[in-house]
Amino acid sequence: MGSPHDPARAPAAPPAPETGAAFTTWLPAAAFAGCTLIWSSTFLLISIGNDSLPPVWAASLRLLLAALILGAIAIARGGLPRGAAARAATWYGLLQFGINFPLLYWGEKVIPSGLAAVLYATVPLSSAVFAHAFGLERVTPLKVAAAVVGLCGVAVIFGGQVHGAIPVMPFVAVVAGATTGSLSLVMLKRGPRQSPFGANAWGAAVGLPLCLAASFALGEPHPLPLTRGALVPLLYLTLAGSVGAYVLIAWLVHRWPVTRISFIGVITPMIAVALGWLVRGERLRPAAFLGSLMVVAGVMLSVLSDRRRSSAV
Questions:
Q1: What are the DSSP calls for the chain, one per residue?
Q2: Which residue ranges make up each domain of the chain?
Q3: Which of 56, 103, 115, 120 fits as disulfide partner to 177, beta carbons 3.0 to 4.6 Å?
Q4: Is pLDDT above 80 for 118?
């Protein structure tokens, strides 16, 4: 046997770092930042686009372009969903794009973009309630507390708007849109695992007729987006919002823990409020500001609940 100082017994040298290791280390962080910035800005771009196009008509055009682009990607990657996957994607499209999109776009005609982002931060909370109702996930006491805090924040915002300058119905529309959107995610999760591109292409195609029907029911005009004020928001929301951010999150979910990714829901409303103030001069009333803090606190509690459950597992 060799001595302790025998080279044969010496610990092996650490392996040399692989080529591109540093690149792959910061790339997930860049994807996380990209998703957060894109989703933080989409509420602002919807508000800007509503200045040039009727809101629900703008949502319909976005769905049309997204369906074509995502459909081409899905077909190139193996095809559109079928069977149970198509049924899940149909429910997803009806709720997310056929109902949620018209409500959000119409509500943002009046609701400040930052406040709309805060209301949409409740999606993880309502998703947890729906997931529990359908038997998909177990709701912990901390998750219940998170939902209560978040919903109390929405109630505080609503109470401030009742006596404020914003009409009640656009507020209700945005809250209803966020809740419907969270239900759509649960309905998609109930189905089999499928390509995110195919599910969103199918969903956009399914939601488009409902969105168009709502536009005609509202008596909106239907001009072509020929001006810069109409084209820039539409293309940004389609390419960055409907395609770009989704591709980033689909890539990131296989490289980071979901509990870490969920912090997007905490950061997005804060950035969106700041963007709305800087670009549009939006200012939250005291009640809306207090309620927004409560909503963000509720989402933070929800994230902590998921992290604690993940650690226990």
A1: ---TT-GGGSPPPPPPPPTTHHHHHHHHHHHHHHHHHHHHHHHHHHHHHTTTS-HHHHHHHHHHHHHHHHHHHHHHTT----HHHHHHHHHHHIIIIIIIHHHHHHHTTTS-HHHHHHHHTTHHHHHHHHHHHTTSSPPPHHHHHHHHHHHHHHHHHHHHHHTSSS-HHHHHHHHHHHHHHHHHHHHHHHS----HHHHHHHHHHHHHHHHHHHHHHTT-------SHHHHHHHHHIIIIIIIIHHHHHHHHTTTS-HHHHTTHHHHHHHHHHHHHHHHH-----HHHHHHHHHHHHHHHHHHHHHHHHHHH-
A2: 34-219+229-312
A3: 103
A4: yes
